[in-house]
Amino acid sequence: MIPGIQGYAEQAEELIKRYEAVSFEEKYQSELRILPISPALILDVGAGTGADAAWFASKGHSVVAVEPTDELREPGKALHPSPAIEWVKDSLPDLTLVLARNQQFDAVMLTAVWMHLDQGERRRGMPKLNSLLAPGGVLVITLRHGPVPNGRRMFDVGGDETIALAKASGLESILCTHTESIQNFNRAQHVTWTRLAFRRPA
Fold first, then answer.
1. Which domains are delineated in the chain?
2. pLDDT by residue (tens digit) across 65-118?
3. pLDDT tens digits for 106-150?
4. Which residues of 106-129 are buried (b: 16+ CB within 10 A; e: fewer)?
5. Could you tell me the pTM of the whole model?
6. Distance (Å, rounded) from C-alpha 93 to C-alpha 5?
7. 146, 189 Cβ separation under 8 angstroms
8. Which of 89, 90, 185, 187 maximizes the CB count within 10 A of its CB?
9. How far apart are CA 146 and CA 134, in angstroms?
10. In this structure, are residues 173 and 165 in contact, taking their beta carbons and an 8 Å threshold?
11. Of all helices (H) and strands (E), which one includes residue 177?
């Protein structure tokens, strides 16, 4: 069992409904202006049901969707059967299968993933994420703050620490903002988000 995915298989049925209920434009209001417009290669790490991957595919992008939880990945394939999405069973901090592809991506998405890694895993993971970015590529990270759901492994990861790790790996910080959750369930739990983005220098 990968420590960071604890609880997701057991809660997959409910999570699938929640993931699919929010539009990409609602979720990424802050990030839309910095994401690729022309056809690009996208890496979605912790892709869940593939809702984000499907949005990118609909815009003409090619997507590698990384999801280690079978109970999310397999329904995601059925929900979003796009030839522009390639699914991979892999996970941070090592991303062994993704790195073995020897590809670089124009955007790497980490939505509600980073806070599942402990400090050592985050330190190992950031240089690998940097290496997966093409020159000029963008890394988007969202950090969840609030009560930890039952059965999950989650850490209180701050934006400052994440920015420092990214800068140490050679990435430029281009976005840092704090927002309330747009999901009613999370808002009732007083969940908030830090939204970060970084660019690899061209």
1. 3-10+39-199 (3.40.50.150)
2. 999 988 889 999 999 999 999 999 999 999 999 999 999 999 999 999 999 999
3. 999 999 999 999 999 999 999 999 999 999 999 999 999 988 877
4. bbbbbbebbbbbeeebbeebbbbb
5. 0.91
6. 12
7. yes
8. 90
9. 33
10. no
11. strand 172-180
